[in-house]
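Still learning. Show one?

>
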Amino acid sequence: MFDNLIYYFGIMALFILLYTIFCLLREYERGVFFFLGRYQGIRGPGVVIVIPFIQQMAKVDLRTVVMDVPSQDIISRDNVLVKVDAVIYFRIVEPDKAVIQVENYHQATNQLAQTTLRSVLGRHSLDEILSERNQLNTNIQQLLDKQTDVWGVKIAKVEIKHIDLDEAMIRAMTRQAEAERECRAKMTHATSELEAAEKLVQAANTMAKQPQALQLRYLQTMSDIASKDKSHTVIFPIPIDLLLPFQRKLIQSMASTQKTTPPSTPTPAPKNEPLVTSTTASTPPVLAKKPLNVNKKKRKFAVYAGFK
């Protein structure tokens, strides 16, 4: 009985020893070997042998890792508070550095990405952050890749996912965009009016050389009005040239009447005719009349007529 237990324990120990000696590494995994604590090399993929108590192996995954960067409160160059979150794609290209140079490359890359995101976006204004997102992604990716190169980490891509703004800032940006659109609309309208005026001047110069063209234009306008409004009203435009002879005759007749009529001479006012006014406040002023000569031999007297 005791011999059987020893036999079974021996078989189990053999299986455990074989399991610890032979290790299977997948295609996307690599093993960093240490011999008595010293770096020995990189092995894999496939079956590798690890001598217990003498060799140690650290597995490293070479697949691309997707890491979310938490939302960061950033103050832009124009003193606007924004919240930005991003995502980073990275992978291990040198497993030995990822194991030897840094304790936890996942956490180190995450913390470095947060600080780099704040430092890069803080040097730009809000308009640049919103409009030049691709350029900012490239700048952040290059800085991260340069700093994580000593860890054997390759930053493949950086993307800014979302930019959160305050409600007041969103309303202000909306009003600014509406004002810019109105300005562009007014400029477009003014430009079109200028071009239309220039074309009208050219058309007027052309019609002035050929008066028949103006009459044809009248007829075309009549046709357009009749076809669009669908009314039975017929409009006959009268050229201004037909009214010029009547205007000339009217001017000549007025000039002839002014020549035949003698100019009226103003009558001189009589001299030494005093104006007599009433002394009372309620009596209106009394007009002075010319004194009447009743008899040359008699004493001259004046008759004054007044009314209350």
Observations:
- The helical segments are 2-21, 95-100, 105-121, 126-131, 133-147, 167-209, 211-229, 244-260.
